[in-house]
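Team,

Forwarding the record for the chain on the shared tracking sheet. I've put the sequence and predicted structure together so nobody has to dig through attachments.
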Amino acid sequence: MNFEIPARTEDFRRRIAAFVEREVLPLEADRSSYDDHGNIALPLLETLRARARGEGLWCLQLGPESGGQGLAKTDMAVCYEEMNRSIFGPAVFNSAAPDDGNMMVLEKLGTPAQKERWLAPIAEGKVRSAFAMTEPHPGGGSDPSMIMTRAQKKGDRYVVTGRKWFITGAGEASHFILVARTSDDPRHGLSALLFHRDQPGWRILRRIGIMGPEEHGGHCELEFDGLEIPAENLLAGEGQGMKVTQVRLGPARLTHCMRWLGLAKRCIEIARAYAAERQGFGQRLADRESIQLMLGGLAMQIEIGRLLVMKAAWELDRGGFARKEVSMAKVQVADVLHAAADTAIQINGARGYSTDTVLEWIYRYARQARLVDGADEVHKMVLNRFLGEEGIGFWRWNVDGTGR
């Protein structure tokens, strides 16, 4: 097991760290840097994106033919963690959800024509995108087999009717990937289709208010009442919707974890700095055993999360689906992000609860981590299923040269 990273990856990590320190972190303390929903203001974002592109730090996750740098998932883990030292970081480098996952699935499964029309504008930063899968009850959520939105084929087009909700980024998106039912086949009944926001036959019913800060475009409820999508806009072919969701959601869940690790580390950074200077009852907070136990325990839990993320990334890089590994990383890192924000606020006291630091922002954001891309409980059920199927083999080692 080799935990060294390539020199090229370290070069990207170092340059990302310097960019975030110099260009991004100072903006967090200025309220004019924020839009009305707690994210970086779009005009400011475009300025920073131009600078990141100029320094060769743009879209690192895509291949060179798509305008990126071709980083493997293990390399991305190192770089994404560094990007999210700032709450604004990932969007600056075009590595934020949902565009991040949408670009990767389009690159992997799209035809050359689809990549040119649907992927290239996102990769260039000209448009934003959304992945429309989740539905209100009794439709599909964590269980895609329950999806009720239908896409009925009529000639060379699919006519879509139904409803989606909590669609991240929909308010600002131009390019959409829609998962809908094209038949009642239990295995191949879902398909993924591409559409543009200017097409008639659908609308945004509302932008759903949420507890935390929002991604650009919010979380929206959509209604489809006759949207027509040409058959050429099928992604991966009819009946391949489950394949599309698997290809997209596994890596997307893991890139969430990569970014969350950066935020968790930032929480410790803020807590340690305050504990080092704050005096109480004749002693620095940093010298109190209780504070040392809190911070040391968090550091260990973050490192456990990093190892799980790296193992999952390694499995994806070698061609596996990493379902078990991604589920373990997702649960661990979501929990540790929440714990890191909560502990850092506790150490900072009233200062942590105020908007004088980004801790309250991270805390509100962190609560969604245990829900998005599958609730903790769903992933634990997945792990128990693997345990039932594999028994003691659940903990097997991969043997060098055998591919298993």
